[in-house]
Design goal:
Elements lengths: L3 E5 L5 H8 L5 E4 L2 H9 L3 E4 L14 E6 L13 H16 L6 H7 L10 H10 L6 E6 L4 H13 L3 E8 L10 E8 L31 H5 L10 E2 L18 E2 H5 L40 E3 L8 E3 L17 E3 L17 E2 L2 H7 L12 H10 L3 H8 L17
Parallel strand pairs: 1-2, 1-4, 2-3, 4-5
Antiparallel strand pairs: 5-7, 6-7, 8-9, 10-11, 10-12, 12-13
Length: 413
């Protein structure tokens, strides 16, 4: 029975989590040890392997859907973008694999970045599966610079009888609290291919005679729950003390959230060891209390998305920019000043507090409880590379006869 959904370059489970939410499961192929462990903890079936070496034969005659998100490092603006130099070689590999000719070894030797050719691997699987009349549908995702390659894939798939669509989609248009643009390929043998309808809009839309307008993009504050009004009003700490940063109220005072909201605070209770103990000084951002985060939970606070001098900064009231995490550590920081230093210097700046893995995951539309595995660096690397599950769910839903609801992706704890 051809009911498998094969997920190439499955990562820590962006597509897999979306499928689980929709009541279906995938078989993920992934090389990274810690991404595989994350998927295992999340209950996702995984084969740890090199996608470029794994045989297609086990999936022939059994595959309903094929998903692929090849590694983006060779193409991403965060890297050297050698994939753009290698692009003609990748196009050649796709053209050759589409007719059953494997020239990968020769082409790989000519590539400036060996990861570039991984973007051609899905065609090897597609060609083998096509001989058995499979798969029923295909979904692929990559950085915007890969869009021309997806057009080549689309042309091949159309010649095989698929309906196809390729283009760019913004994750924020589908409820992800992040303005991440991605090149998408959609193909189907059984339905007219097309992008899902956006569920959100940058500025929100009024209701009309044709129905309700789309709500505005989900902000970081909305997603993280910073400013929620449900539940009992928490205690809000004052600044106070050397290095404690700006004081939202006079030193030593404590206010309820209801009172604080009128004075510009945007705060909520936080996990044990992170929040403020009533009656003590806050010390947010100080070396003596680096984990206290209440002062950055203010509507004037911003998130710096990387360590680069030109990195994007967004206020809590906005959707996040794409978050970049390098191979060493997380360099995304919450701060209260757009002029706060980036990189290592941010450590000693007042109110420059690194984002947590839980917060970063939520801003990618993963649940707060998602079981990231590995060291801090390994976790942030997984988060940065993962497909946004909420966008993935909207792409998958029509092909598995499901509907995505708001309750499916409640982000904040």
């Amino acid at each position: 029975m051809n009911d498998l959904i094969v997920d190439l370059f499955a990562g820590p489970g962006g597509w897999g989590h979306a499928l689980n939410v929709l009541g279906v499961r995938d078989v993920g192929l992934e090389w990274d040890e810690w991404a595989c462990k994350t998927r295992a903890e999340a209950g996702q079936t995984t084969i740890r392997t090199d996608v470029a070496l794994y045989p297609v034969r086990p999936f022939v005659g059994r595959t309903r859907g094929l998903i692929a998100s090849p590694p983006c490092q060779a193409w991403s603006m965060a890297g050297k973008r050698l994939g753009l130099i290698d692009q003609p070689l990748v196009h050649q590999a796709v053209a050759d694999l589409a007719v059953g000719r494997d020239t990968r070894e020769q082409l790989l030797a000519a590539c400036r970045d060996p990861r570039s050719l991984l973007a051609a691997e899905p065609m090897r699987y597609l060609h083998a599966l096509h001989q058995a009349g499979e798969p029923e549908w295909v979904l692929m995702e990559e950085v915007p610079d890969v869009a021309p390659l997806w057009k080549q894939y689309a042309a091949v798939l159309r010649s095989w009888g698929f309906s196809t669509w390729s283009g760019l989609l913004n994750a924020a248009d589908f409820g992800v609290p992040q303005t991440r643009r991605r090149a998408i390929l959609i193909a189907s043998r059984t339905r007219l291919a097309g992008p899902p309808g956006p569920t959100h809009a940058k500025f929100g839309e009024p209701d009309s005679l044709f129905g309700p307008g789309r709500p505005r993009w989900v902000s970081m504050a909305d997603a993280l729950g910073w400013g929620r009004t449900d539940g009992p009003a928490p205690t809000v700490c004052a600044g106070g003390g050397p290095g404690g940063g700006p004081e939202p109220f006079p030193s030593g005072s404590r206010k309820t959230l209801a009172d604080a909201r009128g004075r510009g605070a945007w705060l909520r209770p936080v996990a044990s060891g992170v929040g403020q103990v009533p009656g003590s000084s806050c010390g947010c951002g100080s070396k003596t209390a680096p984990q206290n985060r209440c002062c950055v939970r203010n509507r004037d606070s911003i998130l710096r998305s990387s360590s680069q001098a030109h990195s994007a900064v967004r206020s809590l009231a906005e959707a996040a920019e794409t978050l970049f995490f390098n191979s060493r550590a997380n360099e995304c920081v919450w701060t209260t000043s757009a002029s706060a230093p980036a990189g290592p210097a941010a450590e000693s700046a007042p109110l420059a507090i690194r984002i947590t893995a839980e917060e970063a995951g939520i801003l990618q539309s993963f649940p707060a409880s998602y079981p990231w595995q590995g060291t801090k660096g390994q976790r942030f690397s997984q988060i940065g590379n993962a497909v946004r599950p909420l966008l993935a769910a909207h792409l998958i839903a029509p092909h598995v006869e499901r509907i995505v609801t708001r309750a499916d992706f409640a982000l904040a704890a």
